[in-house]
């Protein structure tokens, strides 16, 4: 089993204080095998984490959290930054064109722009399940569930 935290915000997100280096140190201290620094609308933190992870024995998955026109989508395993403000479907296409994986973070949390508040009929690769309201999706056999929760290091 691989232990990964797929949704960590760094200082480049504008809403967290951890630098990529601090996040990597913390992740390795708690025994994670991999992390994805998924900042709001930028890959900067992710790219720095990728560089700084060399020799640390921890895998960094390139990522970002996109603000689409209907809510947030986390893109994992992408190579290039994707623009904010596209529709969810356009955003999914961009992610899949880059062979990335699309995860819906905090799907039902309105104040954090949860995508499923506005849009239910959408094909995603996974959803976060340790956020409020998501037991519905796991019970009804929705998309692959990710036992993750957004992490903000402050
Ligand atoms: Zn979000």
TrEMBL record:
SMART domains membership: POLIIIAc
InterPro entries attached to this UniProt entry: PHP_dom, PHP_domain, Pol/His_phosphatase_N, Pol/histidinol_Pase-like
GO MF annotation, one: 5'-3' RNA exonuclease activity
Annotated Polymerase/histidinol phosphatase N-terminal domain residues: 4-70
Segments for region (Disordered): 134-154
Gene3D superfamilies documented for this protein: Metal-dependent hydrolases
Annotated signal peptide: none
Protein name per UniProt: Conserved protein
């Amino acid at each position: 089993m691989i232990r990964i935290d797929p949704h960590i915000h760094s200082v480049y997100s504008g809403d967290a204080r951890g630098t990529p280096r601090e996040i990597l140190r913390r992740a390795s201290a708690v025994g994670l095998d991999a992390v994805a620094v998924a900042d709001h609308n930028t890959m900067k933190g992710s790219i720095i984490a990728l560089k700084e992870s060399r020799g640390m024995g921890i895998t960094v998955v390139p990522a970002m959290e996109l603000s689409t026109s209907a809510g947030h989508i986390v893109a994992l395993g992408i190579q290039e930054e994707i623009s904010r403000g596209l529709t969810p479907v356009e955003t999914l296409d961009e992610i899949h064109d880059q062979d990335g994986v699309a995860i819906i973070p905090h799907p039902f949390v309105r104040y954090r722009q949860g995508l499923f508040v506005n849009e239910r009929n959408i094909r995603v690769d996974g959803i976060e399940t340790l956020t409020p309201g998501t037991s519905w999706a796991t019970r009804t056999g929705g998309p692959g569930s990710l036992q993750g929760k957004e992490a903000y290091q402050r």
